[in-house]
Each structure stands twice: as C-alpha cells, then as structure tokens.
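Limitations
The structure tokens in this dataset are predictions for the assembled complex, not deposited experimental models. Users should treat interface geometry with appropriate caution, especially where small molecules or nucleic acid strands are included. An illustrative entry is reproduced here so readers can see what is and is not provided.
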Amino acid sequence: MSFGRFVFTRSLQGLGVIWGVITVVFALRFVTPGDPINAVAPLDATQETRRAIAAELGLDQPLYIQYGQYLFDLMVGDMGFSYIRGQEVTGLVFARVPATVELAVTATIVAIALSIPLGVISATRRNEPVDYGATLFSLAGISTPNFWLGIMMILILAVEFGIFHTSGRGTDFGDVVISVVGPEPFISTLASWLKYITLPSIALGTYFMALITRLTRSGMLDELGKAYVTASRAKGIPETLVRYKHVLRNTLIPVITVLGLQLGTLIGGAVITEAVFSWPGLGTLVIQSINLRDWPVLQGSLIVIGTSFVLVNILVDTVYAYLDPQVVYD
Amino acid sequence: MAPNNTDAMNRRTLLTYAGSAAAAVTVAGCTGDGNGGNGNGGNGNGGNGNGGNGDDGNGNGDDGNGNGDDEPFEVGVTMGQMDSGLDPQDHAETNTEIIVGQVYEGLLDRDKVGGIIEGLATDWERGDGNSVVFTLRETNFHNGDPLTAEDVKFSIERIVFEDVSIASPQSNDLGSVEEVEAGDGEVTVTFSGFNPIAFQLFATNGEIMQQSWVEENSRDYINQNTNGTGPFQVTEYDSGNEVIYEPYSDYWDGEPEVDELTMTSSSESSTRVNRLLAEETDIVTNVPPNEVSRVEESDVATINSVPSARIIFLQMRYDVEPFSSQQFRQAMNYAVDVESIVENVLNGFGEITSQPTLPEHVGYNPDLDPYPYDPDEAERLVEESGHAGVEITLETPIGRYLRDVEIAQAAANQIDQLSNVSCELEQREFSSLVQDITTGDIEDKPHFNLLGWGNGEFDGSQTIVPLMTTGGALTILENEELDQLMTDAENATDSDERVEILQEANELAHELAPWVFLHQQFSVYGVSNEIEWEPRSDEFIDPDTATRQ
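Predicted assembly:
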C-alpha cells in the first residue's frame, strides 16, 4: 500500500470512529436517567408548562428525526441550540477550545522538558542514587491523583505563599503574544500568564511526565545494550555523542507516539483538573452542562473532544509511518 | 530497507515545519479566545451604548480592594455555578437570578429580611375586582430609553403566556394572570381569582425588559447581552465563566459604591474558599461546614450566615403503607434527632422546624414546637400503627442541598436504630429523583425521600399548596381539611384572617406529619474583611449594598 493510500484509509477509518462517537453521544441522552426538562422547569411547574418546554427543546420529535436532523446540522457546522442557555452551541463550545488546548500543550511542554532529561540521566546512571530518585519521582507522579496534587499545590503555593493564582484564566497566551507588540508590558503580562497556567499545567502534566520518564529510561537502556552502541564506542565516538545523537534519537520514536496519544488524552482528560482550577475549558463546560442537563452543549463538547482525539491519532499514525519506514502500511 | 538521504532530509524538514506549525496553532488558538470573549461583551455593550470598558478583561483575578478612596472599589463574587444565559425571564435557577438580577428589576423588590419594598413601581394597590394596580417609576433602561407601561405589560405577558416570545419556566410565578393593561404611567394586572399574595409574587418575580429591545434582537443575543434598569450593567460576558459589570450612573436609587463587579464560579467548594483566602475574590457562596473553621481562623475573611428561605424535610407518601398511618409518620418525626443533625452534620448552620412554614414567612405558627427526639415514643407509635418490623427505604439526592447525603444517612441510621423499623438509604442523582417527584401521578412518586423547598415569596401558602394539598404539583398528601383551609386562605380578603387560617393549616400539617420536619437551611457565605456586606434571606446576592470596610 502506498503512503498516500495509507493516509486515505486511516482518514476514512477516523471518519467512521467520529460517526460512532456522534452516535454514541446522541444515544447517551436517551439512556441516561433524568429528563432535561427537570433542569429547566421549576419543581412546581405544571404538566402543561413541562410539555411546552419539551416542545421548545425539540424533545417532542420522533427519535430518528432528531438523529437525522442532528447529523445533517453537524455536517454544516451547526451543533444546535442550547435552549437552557439560549445560545448557539457551536459558539459556546469553540470559545472553550483555546483554553483547553493552551492547558494541554503547556502541560505537555512542561512534561517533556522535565521528563526526557530525567529519563536520560536515570538510564545513564542506572542503579545510582539519581536513578532511584527519578524512579521514585515517576512512581509518585503516576500514583498521585491530579486533583489531589492540584488542591495541595493551590493550598501551599497560592493560598499560603501567594506565588500563583488559585484558579481561573485571567491572562491567556494570546495576551502574552499581543503584549510583544501591544501597549501592555511584555514581562508583566508573561508573569501574569505564568501565575495562572503553572499550577494547572503541573497538575495535568505530572502523570504524563512520569510516564515519559519511565519510557525514556527503559528505551535508553534497551538501546544502550545494542551492538551499534558498542561499535560507536569502539570507533572512539565520544560518549555524549553516542548517548544524545544516536541512542536518544532512537528512543524518541516510541516517545513521539505516546506523546501524540497523550496530547489527545490531555484534551479530553482535563475535566477534573479544569474543575479544580476553575479553568474555563471544555472540561469545565462538560461539568457545567451535566449540572444544567444541557444536552446539546454536552453533546457538542464530547464530539469536539472525541474528534480531536481521533484527529491527533490519525496525525500520529501518519507521521509515525512516514518517519519510520519499517511501519507496514497494511 | 534503510531510508535514503533524500527521504531523511524530507523528514527533518517536515519535523521542522511541524514544530513551527504547532507553535503557530497554539498561539493562534490562545489568541482566539480572548478575542472571542471580548467580542461578545463588546457587541452587547456597543448596542447598549456602554461599550467603552472592554480593556480590562485580564484583571479579574487580581481584584484586591483598595482601601484608599482613590483606588477603584472592585468586588468579586464566586458562586458554585454560573448562569444559564442572561434572559431574566427564561430560567428557573438561583445562580442565574443572581447574575441577571444585578441588571434587571421587577416592579417590587425585597429588603434583606424579605420585606416588600419599591422596585420599578413606586406605588401598588388593589384595584377593582381581582386586579392590582402598579404606578410606575420614571426611569430609563441602560440604553437610555425610558421605561414605559407597554414594556411592563409585554414583560409580564412574556412570562405568563406561552404564545408571547418564549415558553417561560417562570409562567406560574406570577399567579393566574388573565389580563395585563397598560395605562398612563401605571399597569393593571387582573387575575382569575382574588390572589391574596399578588404583591408577594411580584416582589420576588417578574423582571422587566424593554419590549423593542427584545423584539429587535435574537434569542442568542438576548442571552449574551443585557438592557435592564438595575444598579449594574454588563461590560463583559464570558458564558459560563465570568461576568463583569460596571455601575449604572443614572440608577434611580443612586449609583452603587462598587466600581467594578466580577461574578465568577467554581464548582469545587475548596477552590472557592481558596480564592477567598488568597484575596482573589470577596464573597463566596455555599461554604461547606467543614471549611468554615478555615475561613474563621484566617485574618482575611469571615463567615457570614443567614437563615435562608429553604426548608429541608423527608416526604412520606400518605397513600402507601406504612406511611398511610399518621401514627407511623409521627413516629418517624420522633425517631430523628434533628438537633443532633444540625449540630454535628451542619455545624450549627440550620434551624430546627416544626411546620412547613418558616419563621420569617407569612402564616408561621409560633405556638408549635418541633417534635422532640424520643425513640421510645417512636417505637410505641410504630407498634400502635400496626407496622412493627417494617422495612423502609429513604431516597436522597446527591449534592443538591447542603450536606444532603450526610443528613439522610444520619436520619436513616436513627430510624434504623428503632427496634421495630428497619431503614435503608438509597442515593439518587437529583435529576432522576426529581423526575419521579414531579410526575403528575402520585403513584409514581417515591414513598420516602429527602427534599428541599425554596419559598422566595415568603408566604406559607407557597409551600403548603404545591407540596401538601390535593392537586399540588409535588403533593404527597390528600387531606380535605387542609385543602379547605388553603382554599379559604386563597379567598381571604382580610390579611389578618388569612394569617390565622395559614397558622391553623400549619398546626394541622404538624399533626398530620406528612414530612419528617428537619431544618431551615442557612446560606453560608465567606466574606472578605476588605468589604462590608450583609447577606439576604432570599439567597440573592446584592453587591450594590457592599461598602468598603
């Protein structure tokens, strides 16, 4: 199979998965207990009022018509109308995407910046105190629930010492970029952004950081035992060059795969972190929509999360297939 | 086969481009939200003529309050949940009411303890027959247009009649309105019956919007922008995240002292408290009892609590065994140690109740004492009822009311301690439980469940009629004597006579014991030491009354 055909096939498969996501998300509404009308109507609303509200919510239509209409609307970029919020769903959902992407990307950068050097040091100084330290650190990182870590960091670093903000997203990365050319001073804008982003990024990225550290360490150890390393050393190539130019490069291929997959997970998995830090992203929107039983917004949010996960996966598969010709296309 | 050099070069180039593109996408993505958020606020306020304040969208978290008079007086409020849109007539939740209530006003209003005061009406009286007449205040909407009687007529009709604009979830809140007439500076509302609580209803409900503004704008726009007559006007609206207000300088009751008001939310109670302790906000709602000491022990904030208009109780369905027995229902009241629950589960933030009407509400009977905790008497009554050895299940919502699950656990445990009753607890998601509770048919309702009821009208009938009379939307009781008393109260034209009837109804409800009477819930706020603000008993937050400490 050619590379182009591989990409085409994977994209088609991705579309199938996205359709599946849409269908499951649509069906969830009908298997979940509780009627969305209960969130809108007061407790003592009469049955007539409830029926009128149901008609407004579009809940009086047959199921297949609701489903067909929903699919058609999605194809033209219309995620529907939230009668509970009285607003267009598409605008509501996409207004939250930048905050979630910002948090996921920052968490990933924090994780990579710390985990790869840690993994390399841990592998090259195997069974030394630094290796034990790194192993302990990654074990703690994998075992610590991120909401607990988040609350602890807020208590200590924000409430007690006042170094960071407890929650919210008062300054976004866009403000930092604009401050380079705009009237706002760059340094103070950057500092303000860091005060908001640092704690949620660490809380969200810790598990990922621990995972990549372990992956880098074991990958490095595998590679260091291979014949080409012995050959390189025999040829007199300096140890630093052997480790970083040859061994680390080969180790990074599986790391890239996990990185891509984890980025997708971070976009969808930030719900708890966003709740703890009141981060105004898709995760918070999901929780708000569940509380309000705002199904159109909940459906829209889940579809965007699911779709971004699928897209990231397709991208990673494609890049991976391109970078490593040993990957078989079929 | 190993890749050739050309391939390798291509891959490196690709990786370089991919890295650059990722960075660019991130930057573009992050920039997009700020623009979008500002755009919403800018559009709305542009329409209202208030669009010049959009440059301050980044400072909400740092709203420390200046002590000097030269510094702007900024107040932040953090609640558990944000609004469900800014249309004041298209919602039924307290949080949305708090957010839109800064901008919109009704004809009448309430003071901090629930008394009726002027709103957009300066005078109100009973008219001919079943009508009431409101004399309107001369004031303007935030867009500069004057308030007219036609606007008031349109607003009431938009709430009450389904064929005017929307099917409002508030359609029952103003009583059975038949007709609204707009006169010269006054509005006459005619009901299908006498409606003795017309003014109570209008003091709690019925916010006024401008007819032309509503008709000219889409529903999407109305839910993201405002045009009211209240003390504040919205300068930035970030749906579900944050609302920023500025004071309305021409407000009829004087411009508020607050220079900027920020409403935000955090569903996590610990995060709300942390925000308060880190001095990032000034008022936080629903401080849970286990967090109270943390606030009290800090030197930046204090706890301020007030009895709310919400009563918490355990409902028992009169038509199923064993709850069909009045003795058994009374036994359940003797079996639950409410004093201990208030003390230990709620840390004292609750008041024991003896009847469906709260002390601050019209019709409260001061002669009734709560059922004492007396397990021996409870066991005796269970024996007498003939239901000894019965097994019952208490259903409770999860997280809907302050410590609801813990309260239900304690109550179920205390009932289970009786030698002749076994009680289990079933925790249910609120929306699922409420679906059963609000069903039109009593036979579909739970037999025994915990529920809370907010009575914003401050009138006993607004609890007893829907919850205890035949045909009430949530009733679990049918009793001819109580039905007759409530019908008499509905038709009573003399207010003293009506109060007596309601007090008699409360006494009967106490005897009939369709509920295990638990407690009056308290609203518990954390308030920064930088400001002076007293909470209200109706759960509304009024930062326009806040002053510098």
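Some entries come with short summary sentences. For this one: The radius of gyration of chain B is 27 Å.
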